[in-house]
Specification:
The complex is a heterodimer of chains A (95) and B (320). Chain A is 9% helix and 21% strand. Chain A has 95 residues and is mainly beta. The termini of chain A are far apart. Chain B contains 13 helices and 9 strands. The chains are: A mainly beta (95), B alpha/beta (320).
């Protein structure tokens, strides 16, 4: 009565996300922008670890903190947590 | 069982590649996103991740994008632990056939809805069968991506869309289910609680969970600015306050033996450093109604319950 259905080895692969999320920019969600003061910064490396969006990197060449504004959503956690007060949140377009 | 003692240093962690990358679409200031990022930094080698339906599944794999740099499998709300069991069993069979060498770790991520409520039978089964995997519960205390419905993980007094606070009802009337204790009762080798405010502790516990033979359960406290209604910059601060007020104490149970983690030991050794729960409640607008004079009693009830649970925990840790 019925044809043999295809087995799992024959059916096409589906539901696979193939594009890295890093090609999708979330930086334009931001209202406030973190501005970093390298002089005040003690390079404690807390902020690159607690940023929910992996938008703060440690640049081994320059030995400094770098913000990736392509992804930073402007949550302000880094500024709230920085023990040296080296990050300030500034309204976009004003800095 | 002896666990190796290592320390993660910030220098080493910032150099580790991101396995949970930028470009995910969690809200700004998302606590669970911090938890996942940190835990993926604690992996020791090839790792397969399976994710129950929930916030972190939704935001990390919006077709065709994926924020995962490891093999990752989405599964339904109820069966992430069953999925992890299957992956682990397959790996075992493949190893027997010498299809790969070395160790491949399995991590299951689920939220509080997928753990306290819908996923508990699969989790309980996987724990009983003794599969070797790490189960991470990222707890943001309600069904957040569907619009803030209460779960078994929602605390007493929190206003959600299905436990709204009114003139008579003070938000959720039941208390949070002690899920980590339920997992200890399964007699699995490793159970721990962690808070994203203490990243070293999170990483260390995740790594311990990966290294033990058999099931490990890690309950990570991960505040949600949207559902708890506070400013996005306060996520880590609230996660810290939850520990300082003993709302969410940090401990681990290795083979059923409880011990307090250093951050919670402070409150145990110096009770005057234990902050009042009110400090924690007043930062979040999901508890705002509790500050109406008519609900004053509720604040006392909450403090009493927290103290009672804390007292019980101290006994289990031989610190009473
Ligand atoms: S504002 Fe938030 S998203 Fe932006 S860098 Fe700071 S912590 Fe990361
Ligand atoms: S938290 Fe502050 S002091 Fe530490 S690395 Fe970041 S900016 Fe520098």
């Amino acid at each position: 009565m019925s044809e043999r259905k295809k087995g799992w080895k024959e059916i096409p692969v589906g539901g696979v996300c193939w594009k890295p999320a890093t090609e999708y920019s979330t930086g334009d969600w931001r209202t406030f922008k973190p501005v970093h003061d390298s002089e005040k910064c003690t390079k404690c490396l807390l902020c690159p670890i607690i940023c929910p969006d992996a938008s703060i990197n440690w640049n081994t060449a320059t030995q400094d903190i770098e913000f990736n504004y392509n992804f930073c959503k402007g949550c302000g956690i880094c500024a709230n947590e920085c023990p040296a007060n080296a990050i300030e949140m500034v309204r976009e377009g004003e800095a | 069982m002896t666990l190796p003692s290592w320390k993660f240093t910030a220098k080493e962690i910032v150099k580790k590649p991101e396995l949970f990358t930028s470009g995910h679409r969690a809200c700004a200031g998302c606590g669970p996103a911090i938890a996942l990022r940190q835990i993926m930094k604690a992996t020791r080698g090839p790792t397969i991740v399976t994710n129950a339906t929930g916030c972190m599944e939704v935001v990390s794999t919006i077709y065709p994008y994926t924020a995962w740099k490891v093999p990752w499998i989405h599964t339904a709300f109820e069966n992430v632990a069953a999925n992890a069991s299957g992956i682990e069993a397959a790996l075992k069979a493949m190893k027997r056939k010498e299809m790969y060498k070395g160790t491949i770790d399995v991590i299951a991520f689920a939220g509080d809805g997928g753990t306290f409520d819908i996923g508990i039978q699969a989790l309980s089964g996987a724990a009983e069968r003794g599969h070797d995997f790490l189960y991470v519960l990222y707890d943001n205390e309600a069904y957040m991506n569907t619009g803030i419905q209460r779960s078994g993980g929602t605390p007493h007094g929190a206003s959600t869309t299905t436990s709204p606070a009114g003139k008579v009802i003070p938000g959720k009337t039941q208390f949070k289910k002690p899920i980590a204790d339920i997992m200890v009762a399964h007699e699995i080798p490793y159970v721990a609680t962690a808070s994203i405010a203490y990243w070293q502790d999170v990483l260390m516990k995740a790594r311990k969970g990966l290294e033990v033979e058999g099931p490990a359960f890690l309950h990570v406290f991960a505040p949600c600015p949207r559902g708890w209604r506070y400013d996005t910059s306060k996520t880590v601060e609230i996660a810290r306050l939850a520990v300082e007020t003993c709302v969410f104490p940090l401990w681990e149970a290795v083979n059923g033996n409880y011990s307090l983690s250093p951050q919670s030991k402070i409150a145990a050794l110096k009770p005057d450093r234990k902050k009042p729960v009110i400090d924690y409640l007043k930062m979040q607008r999901r508890f705002r109604h509790l500050f109406n004079p008519s609900f004053e009693h509720e604040r006392i009830v909450i403090q009493e319950r927290i103290d009672k649970r804390w007292g019980k925990l101290l006994k289990k840790c031989d610190m009473a």
